Amino acid sequence: MSQPQKIPATLIPGDGIGPEITEATLAVLDALGASFEWDHQVAGAGGVAACGDPLPQACVDSIRKTKLALKGPLETPVGGGYRSSNVRLREEFKLYANLRPAKTIIPGGRFDDIDLVMVRENNEGLYMGYEHFIPIDGDPHAVGMSTGINTRQGCRRICRFAFDFAVKQGRKKVTVVHKANIMKALTGIFLETAREIYAAEYKDKFVLDEIIVDACAMKLVMNPWQFDVLVTTNLFGDILSDLIAGLVGGLGMAPGANIGEDAAIFEAVHGSAPDIAGKGIANPIALMLAAAMMLDHVHMNDKAKRLREAIDATLNIDNVRTGDLGGKATTKEFTAALIKRLAAS
Ligand code: NAI
Hints:
Helix 10 (301-316) packs across helix 11. The protein has eleven helices and twelve strands. By secondary structure, the protein is of the alpha/beta class. It is globular. The chain has helices at 18-32, 44-51, 57-66, 85-92, 152-168, 188-202, 213-222, 234-247, 285-297, 301-316, 331-344; strands at residues 7-12, 36-40, 68-71, 97-103, 115-121, 125-136, 139-149, 173-178, 207-212, 229-232, 255-259, 264-268. Strand 11 and strand 12 (264-268) form a beta hairpin. The strands form two sheets. It has a ten-stranded mixed β-sheet with strand order 2-1-3-12-11-4-5-10-8-9, with helices on both faces. It has a two-stranded antiparallel sheet with strand order 6-7. 1,4-dihydronicotinamide adenine dinucleotide binds at residues 17, 73-76, 86, 251-252, 267, 270-276, 282-283, 286, 324.
């Protein structure tokens, strides 16, 4: 029988726990028989160490060619230092939509039966990096300033993405999260555009709701089941997606996809977790679920389904869990148990 053609894809293991969870994810993709031809690249602190650049040209060129990447977390210095390689990648490839689902896999936690999707605008808002300090009286940082920008075109693009996603997935409600009472221009344009597009094109397809971001944070904790799909601007989406990860067991369970005109990059929501890096105890599930989203993206839906089901069975039937989920398994032990499950499926 002829081998299926391999799909070219860029692989960035990333920093901190990145290489550990990437190794685990590759082993699982192998066990699934998912055939990717990986082009290994570095970025973030790894890029600085290898060639003095947090986003080496070779990495950008690779993604430009493959249009598809699986990426581990990349370290970004806090305060000063280089600009986030994640943000630069999102800009470089116009990855305007950040899709972050949160679904309960382990029952009996603080919240059961969560099934939410955050659609975060990924290219505009307060992430544009238009920032500077004003020195006064010898203090170089006497005033800090940041300018956020949302464009009509950018708002239309992300609202259409979220609305189309809701229709395709048979979702019942989309909630626009904003702060248009205070930031009347920056997030007002977002809300206004969502209302306009909904009224013109999606009115009969689902319910559109709107909520101010602070109330949304409170309601997500009090009664998350009232939400379905949420769509919001860059910074609010970043914060609330960590919040919804917390509803389903934490960052170790939260995958993400950055989707745009020129490429798609799949990653975990979490960062490089320097506090546990190298200890072999990181939970690899978030990156594995991101790999499942990648399998769906390249139409290997059957393999994505098998992977999600095997993760569920390993956690809930075999009871193999890493420390963040209250278990004792190492990354390698969890991965071995998952591969055993896959072999049986
Ligand atoms: P973090 O997400 O790395 O860690 C927050 C907490 O969650 C830590 O206690 C960590 O041990 C735990 N955690 C995260 N992932 C885990 C996993 N898979 N298994 C078990 N525990 C896990 O956030 P932090 O510490 O704020 O950021 C560390 C670095 O990561 C920073 O340089 C930051 O800029 C970067 N970062 C990168 C992201 C990306 O590449 N997409 C996203 C978020 C942060």
